[in-house]
Amino acid sequence: xxHAVIYARVSTQRQADDGVSMESQIEQCRVKAxxxxxxxxxxxxxDGVSGRTDNRPGFQAALAYCAxxxxxxxxxxxxxxxxxxxxxxxxxxxxxxxxxxxxxxVHQDIDLETDAGWxxxxxxxxxxxxxxxxxxxxxxRSMITASRDGFFVGGRVPYGYQIExxxxxxxxxxxxxxxxxxxxxxxxxxxxxxxxxxxxLRMNTAGLLRDGKAWCxxxxxxxxxxxSYMGLRLFNQIxxxxxxxxxxxxxxxxxxxxxxxxxxxxxxVQAMMKDRIPHEQGGTPKSAFAxxxxxxxxxxxxxxxxxxxxxxxxxxxxxxxxxxxxxxRTRCCLKSVKAEAFDAxxxxxxxxxxxxxxxVQKVVDDIRxxxxxWAEERELRRKALVKEMRETEGRRNNIYDxxxxxxxxxxxxxxxxxxxRTLNESIRGVERALQExxxxxxxxxxxxxxDPQEAVKTIHGxxxxxxxxxxxxxxxxxxxxxxxxxxxxxxxDYREDALLRSPTPTxxxxxxxxxxxxxxxxxxx
Length: 525
Prior knowledge:
- Helix 12 (357-369) packs across helix 15 and helix 13 packs antiparallel against helix 14.
- Strands 2-1-3-4 form a four-stranded parallel beta sheet, with helices on both faces. A four-stranded mixed beta sheet has the order 9-13-14-15, with no helix packed on it.
- Helix content is 46%, strand content 16%.
- The chain has 16 helices and 16 strands.
- The two termini are 51 Å apart.
- The chain is an alpha/beta fold.
- Strand 10 and strand 11 (316-322) form a beta hairpin.
């Protein structure tokens, strides 16, 4: 029998209480797994974790389990439980497929192995991400409002402060003993010009410790850099995707609690600390390109690899090159391709020739035409539930027979009674699932109303806006199997199960992106 794992998630306790609870998700996922003809062998969960990030312990454990075992399905309540970041969701779906695992959803009848299901999954993922972004904006607004009203909205309490209860809410107030230590640190930095390490040594020598522990350079530096001591709470500081700091003008500063240090003194300390930072030169960030691993040599069939070359002015260039000759093969005549220029051109070609309004409209038409599949799947679920009930009732009847025959002399009577109670609960659970299945209305696929032009615009925006080459490669890899590059053409081979494909696989004559040997030295081996 095939095996499945379940993944369930709730973002907040309120969602667990008012929405689809964790236990309900898991119960319905078990029903879905049964309908798929699989046996659930593991359940993974994340309580109070946002789907906007892949940094979810339960989700990562589920992925790791799928990679290590022969799991046929990963079952979730809906695409929004899987994640509300479209790029990560597509990346993870593609990764699961490489491991031989299919993603399945209880709340949405999406078969990602079909063309229509794949596109519906993409569109659903877009809607989930839009919803998540709206929730994030609403949450940010409410946190800013609460902070302006003087309330503490969560996070680590800065050293020098303490929580003060105001009814059901909280505010930050000075912890007088700790606040005196913070003010002493700033005074040492301002009046004596000491750095973080020197301040730590002075505090430790004076016996001004942190709950009995010695101060270190980093802990002092964190206090000297923290704008909380001006009475400010900062919002919108980090780009959630790149994890980079946002521009200063985008950061929202809210006066939310009593200040321990005035603004003028705080800014003087920042300027002094900035002057102490050593200025380092050099360093090249590691580069990556969108089509690495997807390109093949159209002449010898070997995979193209990235090589570097130096232009006449000393500029470093990166190229896709065939390096089969390094393995002892005869050098083929494929010219090297500038990687950056090729990536930009190839993305444009795929978007203009593959991701078109015509393709999107065909997907919508297919979704509507295949509405009958929902009824077939519901019947399969019903039969599976009925089968499970009959088998469970049979096991229960066997126990009844034993009890009727042996009565109170039944061996291990307490264990048998507990087993009977478990079987009865299982039967009631299946009965509830059958009732819910029968009560669930059939989806009206005629309600699928997608403007092809708007859908294409959205998809193009997601792909063009993806600055992470690895994520972009994951997106493109959902429909591109490989790309064969020769000196005169590029041929795209699409995945067999992908709807997205150009009418002709030959998409280009290579005149615009081939290496111009007159302006560069070319890649070095």
